[in-house]
Amino acid sequence: MLRQKFSKTFEIGDGRQVTIETGRLARQADGAVTVTMGNCILLATAVASEEPKEGQDFFPLSVDYMEKFSSAGRIPGSFFKREGRLSDYEVLISRLIDRALRPLFPEDYLCDVQVIVTLISSDPEVMPDALACLAASAALAVSTIPIKEVISEVRISRIDGEYKINPSRSEMQKSDMDFMIGATEKNIMMVEGEAKECSEEELVKALEIAHEAIRVQIKAQQELRDLVGVKEKRDYPKPAQDEALRKKVEEFATAKIAEQSKANLPKAERKDAYKKVYEELKEIVRQEANLSEGEEISDGTKKLIKNYLADVQYNVVRDMILNDHVRLDGRGLEQVRPLDMEVDVLPTPHGSALFTRGETQSLTTVTLGTPLDELLIESAAKSEYSKFILHYNFPPFSTGEVKFLRGPGRREVGHGNLALRSLKQMMPGEDFAYTVRVVSDILESNGSSSMATVCAGSLALMDAGIAFPKHVAGVAMGLITKEGKYAVLTDILGDEDHLGDMDFKVTGTREGICGIQMDIKVDGLPMEIMRNALEQARRGRMHILDAMYNCIAEARSDVKPHAPRTVKMFIDREFIGAVIGPGGKVIQEIQRETGTTINIEEKNNMGEVSIFGTVKEGVEKAHNWVKGIVAVPTVGDVYEATVKSIQPYGAFVEFLPGKQGLLHISEVSWKRLESLEGVLNEGDVVKVKLTGTDPKTGKFKLSRKILLPKPEGQQPQQRGGNGQSEKQS
């Protein structure tokens, strides 16, 4: 086992221990630690440049989480047999770390910072995502990179009614709440997770329990930092300031920005008005500098004007909301923007919905597929298939911008995951045969397109005829705080998100919460404010749910006529081979003759057979075919049999798929027959009754005549020893 110079161990409950170590690995990084729990080991490194790049006016933090397949003794399944670009799973963990770390850095710190967390040893029962932020924070703590506080993150789940910190992978199978909580010693900073309709109070309780566990982890990091001997954080170059220019911007722009903010302008007009103020300021500064016509002020001055103007907007809008309870678009604090929604808007997809809330719009489709369409999700510890897929697309035209179209970025992956986690709480269980893909295309965006995706997805799933029992809606909330006053905003705009102190998105049904994503930007947020914010979010969610139920009250009773049909049945495992046939001959014949797709898996000592097809009759034919193969013939039952061959002594008929018997010539008719010529032909379908089995050979004995009316005075026929019928004497 890896051992380093300095280490600190703490307990997380149930006798489980976590060890943080530093001093031996990756020593050229500014900070490097390993975090160990069981056989799970994470290596985290943090490196920062000494100075910001010239002209840089933003904080360039990059956080990457990656898993080495060697950590679990596996070789990657890709063509190149090496780890490639981060998977969606790794991107989601990277985002969890990034969102928790970002507020730790000073606002005027603009140096490049890169944090890399790598899983180097995997434990099948330890979930590494719950330890990743701890590792990242510890790497920063033992470095001289300037951070304001130490942070950590834990998973809290409810299992059999009991809350547990960082449960094992096996325990998570029974969890009905799963939240990742990031916090400093004093404040909750980040929340993300899902639940099976938990209440707001249950969520608050989970936050409080998680925060106590986080404080233990923060103390361990601080003690490790003291062991290493890190006393002070490094100094760094501060961005240039011009107080005279700041004052000029405030004097010129404050009244104008206030007027614009109260004018209830649409997003595009508000943006243009703001830009006009910026252009006017540039011209004033240019003239005061006595620059000649056509000569521009310096880029540095332009950036300062833009920064100071942003500060004016920040203060003006926040004061307007706090003091006047008036928002940028004129709404009240709890008012949801106008809603418009419609289902079945596209003729070909298997389900579709258009959801519009103010200037945010999602066109969402649902596609139904077979088990062959399931998504393979690979991590170092395991590979599993998912039958529910959700993809979120955010094209540049949705915000009126021109950008290159590339693959989905981290934002798209994160927003799609929140919607997926919310909607999957209401998806049918394991006996549901379809693979379902939901695609949300954002056509217009001004605040919380991820919540529009949840609403549109719920509508489209019901339109597709999936057994989706309840609508799931989502609403994005904001918070403004200042000097003891606060205002909670329902259904925030994009600008309100940027200017606020907390943005959180809550999804759920009428009965409870299904998903949450929360980022808090202020220190010392009391739990009472959190409770009030969650309650206001619940009221906003109910308003949206009422509108959704008015649009489509329940899932359609059947899938669309052009959607694939499906039947799922369970058979004894001993019949799996009979359905497949030698070399797949039987199942291929069924699929070819019926135009269906058949998937067979062994689950729980049973054979799970899923039949898919676009034509209802073909699915029914395949279903009956398989039922016939696995059926056990019962003496006395009547079957429709197909004549397969004619012999002098009778006809061989198939009365169940794969099961044949002899219909003796004496059992064809009450009338004595010398031959079957003109009576039966190959391919004829006749009704027969199973009368028994031959005790010596086990062959089936069938009769047709027993189902026919017996002529009066007709003497019964008897089989002779030579196989021919003889009249009784």
TrEMBL record:
Stretch list, region Disordered: 706-729
Residues that, per the record, bind Mg(2+): 497, 503
Membrane spanning residue stretches: none
Protein's UniProt keywords contain Transferase: yes
Residue ranges of every copy of the S1 motif domain listed in the record: 636-705
Alphabetical list of InterPro entries matching this protein: ExoRNase_PH_dom1, ExoRNase_PH_dom2, ExoRNase_PH_dom2_sf, KH_dom, KH_dom_type_1, KH_dom_type_1_sf, NA-bd_OB-fold, PNPase
Family affiliation: Belongs to the polyribonucleotide nucleotidyltransferase family.
UniProt xrefs under NCBIfam families: polynuc_phos, PRK11824.1
Its job: Involved in mRNA degradation. Catalyzes the phosphorolysis of single-stranded polyribonucleotides processively in the 3'- to 5'-direction.
Protein name: Polyribonucleotide nucleotidyltransferase
Lineage of source species: Bacteria, Pseudomonadati, Bacteroidota, Chitinophagia, Chitinophagales
Name of the coding gene: pnp
